[in-house]
Amino acid sequence: MCSDLRSIGWSLLLGLLLPVMGLAQPVIRHELHVVLQPDQHVLQVTDSITLPAIPSPLHAEPWHFALHAGLSPVVLTPGVQLVRQPQEDTAGSQPPLEHYAVKLPAGMRTFMLRYQGNVHHPLPQQHPEDAWSVSDTAGMLAVEGVYLSAATYWYPRFGDALLTFTLDVQLPLAWDAISQGERTRHERADNVTYVRWESPEIQEDMYLVGGPFTTYGQSAGAMQAMVFLRTPDALLAKQYLDATAQYLHMYHTLLGPYPYKKFALVENVWESGYGMPSFTLLGSKVWPIISCRSSAEAPRHTDGPRCRNILTMWQPTARYRSSPFGPATVLPLQPSAMARR
Q1: What's the pLDDT at 312?
Q2: Spatial contact of 243 and 292, defined as CB atoms under 8 Å apart
Q3: What whole-number distance in Å separates Cα of residue 203 and Cα of residue 147?
Q4: Which residues pair with 139 in a beta bridge?
Q5: Average pLDDT for the chain
Q6: Over the stretch 218-246, which tens digit does the pLDDT of each residue have?
Q7: Domain range list for the chain
């Protein structure tokens, strides 16, 4: 197995080193404070948005973004103008969207929005014969769990702009929240859980996953290995934490420093096999077959999904590089960890 993984690793490394450059994309900074009310399908958000520097005279042009319909954004920054755009014919689209133009005074790059509303798109019903199929949702915010992504438009999306973010989340006491990057706050007080995730790494998407998790963790060198289970199982978590640490070390040797502060395995409320930057979201039926144990301990067919998800964590760092043409240049590589498995 090790020889196979080394071949995969070197193939990926060669792909990352290809000097192929694409079009520059702006990078937008979000600093969000989010309150989740799963029993009401409601989120409340305050978002401090920092736009990239734009040379004159383009700074006078408005910026355009889309947001999930019904969230009613309000500008909290004096002098900033927010205008809802005429509604396009999007009958039947999921999720429903509203489009806005925002114009800032000259010299201003940061403004604050506040919005709130109902966001919930239930999963299609799975029949017994579909038990192993992967379902999807435009956005789930319910007592069963939370799954929000760029496809939900739960945060303002400025076209294809990339982003960095800090995400402060407030949610029910027995719940926890996961996103990309490093967890820098985790407190339980006043019948509420407070969590902060920080991602200075450039991203295409911003995920927010939540639910009634039991969390396990251990150090893996300079990184943190984490497991989030919907049903407590310390023995299972320990097995995955040990294997994750082993593979992080191996890929570090092959590919260089791991680009994130953690790698987390998260149990999903429905059957899925998603790989996101710095974590993977897996359905409960997938967990028994994703062992990364050596071939001496388990059949070869158990070596794949999670090892591949860990391996692809290296790819996003090669996709976004600074350039003289803009804050980030996108390299057209193969689908990265941000692609759903």
Answers
A1: 54
A2: yes
A3: 17
A4: 121
A5: 78
A6: 998 888 999 999 999 999 899 889 988 88
A7: 2-330
Fill in the DSSP letter of residue 266.
E
Residue that wins the pLDDT comparison between 341 and 213: 213
Note whether 156 and 236 are within 8 A (CB): no
Predicted pLDDT of residue 243: 87
Burial degree of 135 (CB within 10 A; 0-12, 13-18, 19+): middle
pTM of the model: 0.80
Per-residue pLDDT band for 59 (boundaries 50, 70, 90) equals: low
Alpha helices in the chain, H assignment, sequence order: 2-16, 234-255, 305-311, 315-319
CB distance 109 to 50 below 8 Å:
yes
Q: How far apart are CA 186 and CA 109, in angstroms?
A: 30
For residue 102, which of 53, 66, 55, 54 has the smallest C-alpha distance?
A: 66
Task: Give burial (CB, 10 Å; 0-12/13-18/19+) of 131.
Answer: exposed
Q: Which two tokens stand for residue 122?
A: 């239930």
Using an 8 Å Cβ cutoff, are 181 and 196 in contact? no
Give the CATH architecture of domain 2-330: Sandwich (2.60)
